Amino acid sequence: MTFQAFHFDPVELPPVARELRKEVRAFLDENRASLGTRRDYDQAFSRKMAERGWIGMTWPKQYGGHERTAFERYVLIEELLAAGAPVGFHWTADRQSGPNILRFGTEEQKQFFPPRIARGDLSFCIGMSEPDSGSDLAGTRTRAVKVDGGFRVNGSKLWTSNAHRADYMILFCKMAEAGQEEVDRHAGATQFLVDLKNSPGIEIRPVINLLGEHHFNQIFLTDLFVPDNRLFGEVGNGWRQVSSELAFERSGPDRFLVLFKLLVEMVRMAGPNPDRATAAALGRLVSQLATLRRMSLSIAGMLQEGLQPLTEAAVTKDLGTRYEQDLPVIARSLFPAEPELEAVDTYVSMLARSTMNAPRLSIQGGTREILRGIIARGLGLR
Amino acid sequence: MTFQAFHFDPVELPPVARELRKEVRAFLDENRASLGTRRDYDQAFSRKMAERGWIGMTWPKQYGGHERTAFERYVLIEELLAAGAPVGFHWTADRQSGPNILRFGTEEQKQFFPPRIARGDLSFCIGMSEPDSGSDLAGTRTRAVKVDGGFRVNGSKLWTSNAHRADYMILFCKMAEAGQEEVDRHAGATQFLVDLKNSPGIEIRPVINLLGEHHFNQIFLTDLFVPDNRLFGEVGNGWRQVSSELAFERSGPDRFLVLFKLLVEMVRMAGPNPDRATAAALGRLVSQLATLRRMSLSIAGMLQEGLQPLTEAAVTKDLGTRYEQDLPVIARSLFPAEPELEAVDTYVSMLARSTMNAPRLSIQGGTREILRGIIARGLGLR
Amino acid sequence: MRDETRMLLDSVGRLFEDHCTKEVADRAEAGIFPDALWRAVSETGVPLAALPESAGGADAEWSDLFAVLRVAGRFAAPIPLAETMLAAWVASSAGLQISEQPMTVGPVRLGDRLTLERDGNGWRLSGRASRLPWAAQAGRIVLLADGPDGEMAVALEGTPGSSARGQAAGAELTPGRNMAGEPRDTLDFAGLRVAGDAVAAVARGIDRAAVYRRGALARAVLMAGALERALDTAVTYAGERKQFGRPIAKFQAVQQQLAVMAGQVAAAGAAADAGIEAMSRDDPAMEEFLIAIAKTRVGDAATIASEIAHQVHGAIGFTKEYSLQLSTRRLWSWRDEFGGDAEWAARVGAFVCARGADALWPTLTDG
Amino acid sequence: MRDETRMLLDSVGRLFEDHCTKEVADRAEAGIFPDALWRAVSETGVPLAALPESAGGADAEWSDLFAVLRVAGRFAAPIPLAETMLAAWVASSAGLQISEQPMTVGPVRLGDRLTLERDGNGWRLSGRASRLPWAAQAGRIVLLADGPDGEMAVALEGTPGSSARGQAAGAELTPGRNMAGEPRDTLDFAGLRVAGDAVAAVARGIDRAAVYRRGALARAVLMAGALERALDTAVTYAGERKQFGRPIAKFQAVQQQLAVMAGQVAAAGAAADAGIEAMSRDDPAMEEFLIAIAKTRVGDAATIASEIAHQVHGAIGFTKEYSLQLSTRRLWSWRDEFGGDAEWAARVGAFVCARGADALWPTLTDG
After folding, report:
1. Which value does ipTM take for this structure?
2. I want to staple A265 with a disulfide (CB 3.0 to 4.6 A). Which of A296, A347, B327, D49 is the partner?
3. Any bridge partners for residue D104, and if so which?
4. Is the CB of residue A125 less than 8 Å from the CB of residue A195?
5. Which parts of C93-183 are beta strand (E)?
6. CA distance A282 to chain B (A)
């Protein structure tokens, strides 16, 4: 009997991370006006962070990074998220695209992209999902054909967050023969670095969400030409390249701090001397959050050691999502109110936004069923 | 679009049922000493009920019944259950075995069994599950071979409630050829009426549950001889005979009144003026219970009309079990206590019993997964 | 169900199906009142059917009217149908003028309080009515206010179309909306002069508490309908959407989730029915208890079911384009209107606790 | 984890695996103390390891001792290991005699209160200590009582084997058990005469609150272990048990449920670890906060995980014969000992509310 299916070894934050926390708090205090607004995509804010070396902070210095620890990055991003800082411009590039380019990119790509990301000059989006492939990437239909000097790509992408604002997209598609309209499920998956701002053959249409906001897009690619030097990684290696992102994507504090401000407002509503039942309900939530943070930090420790704790990341994401989706439900029951998006009262408007945003949380980063399937595999059940 | 996947049409209890309720309450009041004890199997109590015509009450008069409505029976049993009356002696016979014999039995069987059940003379148990077939009856291994004048049965049954006390068992098994040790999954399922008290070849061993109680048994059948006149229904028709019981078995108030006394004690703990959170938590439970009762009553109406609302019964059972399994959890959170089986305090001992009994509720009458599978089939998903 | 009821429901069902298109819903959310839909509904006579025949009604059963609301809820009909029914009931019973136009009724929040003071042969109305449904678009606004000798009903002429911040029916209007984009406007009255014939004492039992309670039931019944629609949408989607080479309906995890959702939807329907029946009991305390159960149970069902519906849909369900949000945004809004489930559940709990533990069973089985 | 710690855990793991058989568990439940198990554990030095070397201990870290408790929880070891550790800590720090025999410590319930009064050069002890673990079987009972000048520790000689109702350690003993059948005996003292050298003022910070808090953490850690065992049992069973012609582990519904359980088990382990680390902070308020989080989170995990474990097992899990109940009955009992999750959660909530909303984030990230 091994007993411990998964590993969440204790980690202690190094002193340098504690120091950094103070710096970040001071920085956030200086930039208070940018926090907690609905304007999440703010290049000027990202540039300020870049100036302090807070984008690409764990990357090698030769590629524009700052060679700091995963723990420091952890502290930085949890502080940013808890404060509601507008990190949308650099978020994807810093978390996924940059590290992935450093791992799978050509030397020229590593010279070109990461330094610009770290300066706050380039933003990225991820072109993965399609109308018929959400959880199931094998269903991808977008296809690339080798042509002289590059590739010609046709197809469409859906749910591409921030495509209407990003500079580059890492495009996931399949290799096909010239003239081939349909690709099969097992064709070689391949990625490209697509310049969204300067490529003919790209049409981006907004997909408005149920809050009336524009984050998602549908992208139509019609004879898009991608030059050879923007092939990303190896032809046919797209699968492996993508799955290496997932531990990063799933274990971070963004998986349980999206609605943190609602918890803060709940504590405010409770006042300094809540009754026992209210205190207990809040206490259970705080206990979940504190534990999630510990688990997430433990994963940061494993990432720092170069491990890929995919199952542990799925556990943390699944628990984090459950906790966050319960937040507005418990808020309603403790502090009943008619939620109203435009309310002046912070709690009331936050309750509305949280309620309406909650469904999204169990979709992004892998649906609940997919995550639990990964955990079940970790248990040896499949 | 049909919109209403399932039907729970409103029903109103007829005046005769309301009258009966008063009678039952008076009867229970007279027999107060028998209520709410752990002694659930009490033939003397069943005889008293039989004297009033309360066993087999909906059956034809010619077979010892009283030709009363399903609504009257509904009222009777919900009153018995809510009061914690010791109905174990006649419960299975009254709910399942009697109606099934009236439906599938020979004339001789109909003359023999139902009148004796209705008099409180005979008790029944159900020999269905086996070590390797719980939810999956096709896995049944007990096999019957035709011999001169009857059948010879070999095999074993598990989880047979009350087998150590019952007079008869309705045995579910498969037909085999002489000498055949293993039967295949699709062999003809067949039922027998087995006299447990007067048949050689039956060994009954107790299976103690985690409360230290003896309800379950394991039964070993070694060359058990069952005469031809105790073949029940048709050879090969066992499946259909069994599934017709399920709507009865799954929709009754026993699917949400097992732990009713705990709810009563919770109301007592709350006192006449509970705080808002306590009132709301109790109110949610009462709202669930009232709704379950309405759904169950609606099914009684359908049974009265001769329908077989199997999906609706599965819905009610699933919701009822969820509600009852949540009861001790919510009790603990509202009125914290260290549960203790032998406590003098009614609430504390009931909390212990309820906590330990809760797992059983989602096993008996079909596991959660099985019930939800039936519901999914009702939705056209499978 | 009686045959005439079934015929009525079939015909309004077809009417809503024809009129409640996605376009109508989107336009309504953009502030354009669906006149054609309202006219069609109005022509059926349903909005005023509860009135006596003498008053232009049909002496209809409340149970039939509320059954229509369930259908309206299914189709997310963006009109003040429940509000008009309740407004007509209050105004007509008090002997006030009603209107064929959409009406609304209030206050709809417990904390709001309106007062009437004598002013010559007329009255002056003061106070706030928050988040009144469709107030800016109603032809008539029926309000309950505290007069010198008890509760009084006031019927104000509306000023349809005044959806901008400003004046409406002589009050300061602050437009608002619920999470589904339905108008919920706040009216502030600062001693508004109201003519004598627009004010009357309420009929016995048809008072503010009754409006609040039946308003809550109306929301529960609308939700029961919206839940049926959301289930239908999710089941249909699961059958069509393919992942890993087969419809997601074939995955056991999806089946089990939809089974849970179906159970909640069925329970919501049953609880709403019980609330509807309670209106015919002529026992306000028991009516309130059963409606409280309905609002609580349906509200809980809405929470569980909407989560599952979105989970099954994935990203598509999160878009404005797709219709699921027409149901789920209404569920999220309606569960907290006329009091949320926490408030009504506390009322259920207070009711049974006041009667005591040993009365719980008789209370549940009464009737 | 340090190498010596890992070696220690490996060796006690083997020890428990050898000794904690189903038979030993059943006999313990029938009232027969597992002497061989206790002797084996005692020989490792673990029960008294926290004491300074001068007092016969090993100056061991509490974190190592509590890591051993997690292993004991896995194997459902029916001995007062946590109680002996805590009793030794209290008695030794107060300068009182300890024992190699199993010990217990109390009071373990918030409402209980013991008092000491001077009587010549000795003392008189009064009051009740409810549901003291293994009180009838302990060689020494260490109690915290209110003396004339503050809290004092009392070390009473036990009377092992006195499991019948009657006298124990000079007190009236009412035997009891928790849902797992572990002894939880109530002691009533009516002015029991205690010698002067069996009573001493408590060491600073090693008082009743500290015992209650670390007792709660001990239960959380034991539960974290029991949860691991229950998961292991359920996963193994699902792989072996066949229904519909294949192992139930292959059904997606079972996989999804076990995945949920595994998440709860992982969270419980992480929360327990955080509580253990808190003991080294030398900050009683923060220690209490983090232990409160641990007891709350592990308690919630126990509730969810034990339901799933039983659901996956079906009927077999409900039998005394099968081993799952050794874990789940303990989880159901332990979650409410030394304060249940409702009590500790309220403490977490009160702590953060007292500090205020804007201090929530700094509180969570402190350290």
Report:
1. 0.96
2. A347
3. D141
4. no
5. 103-106, 114-119, 122-133, 140-147, 150-157, 166-168, 171-174
6. 13
Q: Is C273 exposed, middle or buried (0-12, 13-18, 19+ CB in 10 A)?
A: buried
CA dist A24 and D6 (Å) reads 37
- Which residues are within 8 A (CB) of B111 and not within 5 positions of it... i.e. 6 or more apart? B63
Grade residue D54 by pLDDT with cuts at 50, 70 and 90: confident
- Between β-strands B143-147 and B124-127, what pairing exists: parallel, antiparallel or unpaired? unpaired
pLDDT band for position A379 (cuts 50, 70, 90): very high
Nearest CA in chain B to A281: B333
**In this complex, is the C-beta atom of C320 within 8 Å of any C-beta atom belonging to chain A?**
yes
| Chain B residues touching residue A281 (CB < 8 angstroms) | 277
Interatomic CA distance for residues D171 and C127, integer angstroms? 69
What is the distance between the alpha carbons of residues D201 and D195, in angstroms, rounded to a whole number? 14
Taking contacts as CB-CB distances below 8 angstroms, the residues of chain C near A185 are 245
Strand C166-168 to strand D140-147: parallel, antiparallel, or no bridges (unpaired)? Answer: unpaired
Task: Point out the least confidently predicted range of A3-12, C199-208, D357-366.
Answer: A3-12
Q: How far is A288 from chain D (nearest CA, A)?
A: 6
Report yes or no: A270 at the B interface, CB cutoff 8 Å: no
Q: In angstroms, rounded to a whole number, what is the distance separating the alpha carbons of residues A191 and A104?
A: 10
Does residue B275 belong to the interface with chain A, where contact is any CB pair within 8 Å? yes
B45: buried, middle or exposed (CB in 10 Å: 19+, 13-18, 0-12)?
buried
Give chain B positions within 8 Å (CB) of A269: none
- Tens-digit pLDDT profile for residues C233-269: 999 999 999 988 899 999 999 999 999 999 999 999 9
pLDDT digits (tens, 9 = 90+) for A58-111: 999 999 999 999 999 999 999 999 999 999 999 999 999 999 999 999 999 999
Neighbouring C-alpha atoms within 13 Å toward the C-beta of C26:
11
| A130 beta partners | A133
Q: Tell me whether residues B279 and C238 touch, CB distance under 8 A.
A: no
How confident is chain C (367 residues) per 10-residue block, as mean pLDDT?
A: 86 95 95 95 92 86 94 97 96 90 95 96 96 94 96 90 59 93 95 95 95 98 98 97 91 96 98 96 94 98 98 94 97 98 98 98 88
pTM attached to this predicted model: 0.96
How far apart CA A179 and CA A200 sit, in angstroms, is: 20
**CA atoms in the 13 A half-sphere facing the CB of D317:** 32
Q: What is the DSSP letter of C158?
A: P
Contact predicate A52/A27, CB 8 Å: yes
The pair phi, psi for residue C222, each rounded to 5°, is: -55, -40
Given a contact as 3+ CB pairs under 8 Å, which chains touch B? A, C, D
User: Which phi and psi (to 5°) does residue D179 adopt?
Assistant: -65, -15
- Do C131 and C186 form a contact (C-beta atoms < 8 A)? yes
